[in-house]
Amino acid sequence: MQRWVVWLDRLLQLAAGTLVVVLLGTVVAGIVSRALNHPLSWTDEASGFLMVWLACLGWMIATRQSAHIRIRVFQDLLPLRPWQGTELVIQAATALLGAVIAGYSVHLIRSNSDIEALALPLSTAWMYVPMLPAGLLTLAQALVELWRLATGRVDKPEPLAP
Amino acid sequence: MTGLMAKISGVWLVSILAGLPLFVSMGLAALAFLWISGIPLSVLPQKMAGSMNSFPIVAAPLFILMGNILGAAKITDRIVAFASALIGWVRGGYAHASILTSMIFAGMVGSAVADAAGSGAIEIRAMKNAGYKPETAAAITAAAATIGPIIPPSLPMVIYGVMADVSIGKLFMAGVVPGALMGLSLMAMVGVVARREGMGRQPFAGFAAIGRTFLRCFFAVMTPVVILGGMFSGLFTPTEAAAVACLYALFLGFVVYRTLELKQLGPILVDTAITTGIVMVLVMAAGALGWCISISRVPQTLTPMILETISNPLLFLLLVNVLLLVVGCFMEALAAMLILIPILAPAAASYGIDPVQFGVIVVLNLIIGTITPPMGIVLFVVIRIAEISFETMARAILPWLIPLLVVLAAITLWPPLTLWLPGLLSRP
Predict the structure, then answer these.
(1) What does each C-alpha distance from B213 to A116, B86, B94, B209, B252 come to in angstroms?
(2) Roughly how many angstroms between the first and final C-alpha of chain A, as a whole number?
(3) pLDDT range class, residue B381, cuts 50, 70, 90
(4) Do the chains contact at B274 and A67, CB–CB below 8 Å?
(5) What angle do CA A114, A116, A121 make, to 5 degrees?
(6) pTM of the predicted model, to two decimals?
(7) HEC sequence for A103-156
């Protein structure tokens, strides 16, 4: 199991790094083609699509690394038991959001699958496709955290300020 | 619907303070609104994805990439050497050089944390070696790092421009004068405290050394010229300027300075993606929540109330400053901006306040929040570098807030400080 998780993390990082390069290349292609008097019609639209993908992949990596911004100052003042209680609610709320995003992304992908993008020979559904794994990973990570909390494997973090 | 949104906002703010990740709290607030109002829940992922599908927002990851490349290329050392040769001979020379370094580095990075992390170690070490108190060195570095997101390029200004539909180019130009004033006011503060703090001076390095060190960092110093020159000559949009700046940064790292190695590119790209993810998921959730706020007519309800209660635009701006400074003490700058822009920007427009001036005021307020305890993220960066306690840092930073607050008051009271330069460059 651990090996699969490491493999997933590496895959996410590889995909995200590649997307940054592709995004940069797409914007540069737009500049160069315009300078050569043969402007490409698809670069702006492609950049928008790639941006959604990059944001979702970055969101997934940040979820895996627990790097999302949280105000922990007040929660960390609580004694252990209430801290665990609030953490339980927080992870359950995160799981709910992940489930809703994943579930309704499927609906969006289906309903947009026959709508073609303006300049790209692609369905607009591709814009919503990365929301599905992002929602699923948010849900899965929150469920893992809930399980770790329930089995007493989560320690209360030390306060940030020394 | 406004009443419903107000109730949801109350629960949402409590959930933020209780420790819920900010994007989750915003997403759930939007979800609750949609569910109770009977609007299809598919609007949530639709608006989240839709808020990313925009060309101007692409500037954000590209500016993050540029900052990461220049950080990895260790260009800071050259800038510090130049700043020390230029101004190190004045009393408090290392402090002045540190501030000047941050002003120059601000043209290459768009965030205060990147500025503090990128140039902080070398600046604080130099000041400590020169006999400065560690907490003074850390406070000067932290205060100077706030110049990073004011002088262009600026990540918060890109986000503000996209959220409030304001020209990113004009916001960038509007930050130049306030950024320079922040640097000058901090230098004036150094001048005031230098003798009392026992800050020494270095011998004058000579004009040849100034010229030599300037040439060593010349191409790096030209980065903002490439960005702003390209934008205001009409060659590039802000997003395209960010892409060109990335290529320029790669050129500096691989060809000019040869301080970058190929093996560093992987971590740089992944780091860019993670920072983009952390920032953009907030923008996505704020996009969905912003849509809920707009259809619940919160701005249309709140703005007349604000206008009725506060008749004077200046009083409104002063109250906004107080509100943002307090919020900035407890909340991450970007999150606070995303939450407050949909409410404050329409009200400011109703008073006839220029959206560019208002944007700079909002960004400066919240950036000052990054160096105010208890939630000053830049403070956390510098205390680790300076190896001092948070309590010591919290006391040491207080006097250095004064010059920044003076600049904030100046740009609030006198709009030409922010609007003169964008107006000058936008003339046909």
Answers:
(1) 55, 9, 16, 6, 16
(2) 36
(3) confident
(4) yes
(5) 125
(6) 0.86
(7) HHHHHHHHHHCCCECCCCCCECHHHHCCHHHHHHHHHHHHHHHHHHHHCCCCCC
Take residue B45 and report the two structure tokens written for it.
Answer: 């992922």
State the average pLDDT over residues B82-107.
Answer: 89
Give the burial string for B331-345 (b: 16+ CB within 10 Å, else e): bbbbbbbbbbbbbbb
Check: CB of residue B327 under 8 Å from CB of residue B289: no
Buried b (16+ CB within 10 A) or exposed e, B353-392: bbbbbbbbbbbbbbbbbbbbeebbbbbbbbbebbebebeb
**Model confidence over B225-243: pLDDT tens digits?**
888 888 878 888 889 999 9
Bond into B374 cis (ω within 30): yes
Distance to chain B for A147, nearest Cα, Å? 18
**3-state SS, residue B387:** coil
Determine whether the interchain pair A23/B236 forms a contact, defined as Cβ–Cβ distance below 8 Å. Answer: no
B41 to chain A: nearest residue by CA? A104
B89 CA to chain A: closest CA distance, Å?
A: 36
Residues 130-159 of A with CB under 8 A from B: 130-131, 135
The HSE-up count of residue B198 (CA atoms within 13 Å, CB side) is 6
What's the CA angle centered on B108, arms B102 and B109, to 5 degrees? 80
Which residue of B lies nearest to A43 if distances are taken between CA atoms? B55
Q: Which residues pair with A123 in a beta bridge?
A: A116
Residue B92, φ and ψ in degrees, nearest 5: 75, 30
